[in-house]
């Protein structure tokens, strides 16, 4: 009887450890994505600041793949603002996801600790 309980505890412990490691990796990935999106946002903001100093009738080249397209300052300005807004939204989503994942890791650690304590108590 005690052997089957030990086996079940080991199995549950292993599953919790795997789930915890997986969740930690997802949280690290979310951190990397947040950093990347922050750089995109910063780049768009700096480019926007450079463009605003130009006269309104200025036409600029935008790199699209391997081509360059001549566009108005206003069109490029709108694209930069959209890029910033999209990056902000994605950053908020990822931060919420990261908080959830960190909470999951904490709960898994607590569960593992409880399992160990209950095993020692027996």
UniProtKB/TrEMBL annotation:
What InterPro entries is this protein classified in? PFD_beta-like, Prefoldin
One Gene Ontology cellular component annotation? prefoldin complex
Write out the similarity annotation: Belongs to the prefoldin subunit beta family.
Provide the assembly information.
Heterohexamer of two PFD-alpha type and four PFD-beta type subunits.
Pfam short name (any one): Prefoldin_2
Q: What is this protein called?
A: Prefoldin subunit 1
Keyword Chaperone on entry: yes
Alphabetical UniProt keywords: Chaperone, Coiled coil
Coiled-coil annotation: which residues? 73-111
Which CDD domains does the protein's record reference?
Answer: Prefoldin_1 (cd23164)
A GO molecular function assigned to this protein is:
unfolded protein binding
Please verify whether the record's keywords include NADP.
Answer: no
Q: Briefly, what is this protein's role? A: Binds specifically to cytosolic chaperonin (c-CPN) and transfers target proteins to it. Binds to nascent polypeptide chain and promotes folding in an environment in which there are many competing pathways for nonnative proteins.
